[in-house]
Amino acid sequence: MTLLRLDGVHASYGEAQVLHDISISVARGERVAILGRNGVGKTTVVNACLGIARLRKGTIAFAGQTASAIRHFTAARAGIAVVPQGRRIVPGLTVRENLLLGAAVGRSGRWSFETVCELFPILRERADTPGTAMSGGQQQMLAIGRALMANPDLLVLDEPSEGLAPVIVDELGETLVGLAAGETSILLIEQNFSLVHRVAERYYVMSKGAVVEEGRLEGLSRESLKKHVAV
């Protein structure tokens, strides 16, 4: 069953059009990646779904409702949780307080402070530590945990490997595959071929605001994926 679908989407910021005839879908429990160089419009795909970028043409639907009913400040309540590029841990709040922000939308589900800490034990150990005092990898765990606390149907991650050591990226990949097995859909916006190859089932490649390649990851080598992205 399709959870998120964009059909023929054109989107802009003001008069500057960024997306050109984009069609992308994510099924329930599926792991999908959007790849491409910086500035090609990957994040704008998400911003169009959240009403941050203006939809000029085409349709966007999430969980059976048109995206016109969803805005960035209501997305978590609708079932979309975003782990933004740069993590955006709230300064001045502890790890526990940052996590509880995610639960403020009041959606029920499997994720709570306890279950998130089972997934990322370091968050329980550092629960009373300022969130911004942790390492980059720990902050990424906190950002993902905060998003999970909203019990989303779709988890969107924007460049989650940025600034992380390879061993942490490998651990992140295992975590994301496990989340999808628990029926949380994943939309991964990423340039790290290793993480995409490990996590995604399908991929879309973007260039200059358009999808120029798409396919399944099954049977596709990391080297072939790099060639697909080198557009």
TrEMBL record:
One of its GO terms (molecular function) is branched-chain amino acid transmembrane transporter activity. InterPro entries: AAA+_ATPase, ABC_transporter-like_ATP-bd, ABC_transporter-like_CS, BCAA_Transport_ATP-bd_LivF, P-loop_NTPase. Keywords: Amino-acid transport, ATP-binding, Nucleotide-binding, Transport. It comes from the Bacteria. Signal peptide: none annotated. One of its GO terms (biological process) is L-amino acid transport. SMART domains: AAA. The keyword ATP-binding applies. PANTHER family: HIGH-AFFINITY BRANCHED-CHAIN AMINO ACID TRANSPORT ATP-BINDING PROTEIN LIVF. Belongs to the ABC transporter superfamily. This is ABC transporter ATP-binding protein. The lineage of its organism: Bacteria, Pseudomonadati, Pseudomonadota, Alphaproteobacteria, Hyphomicrobiales.
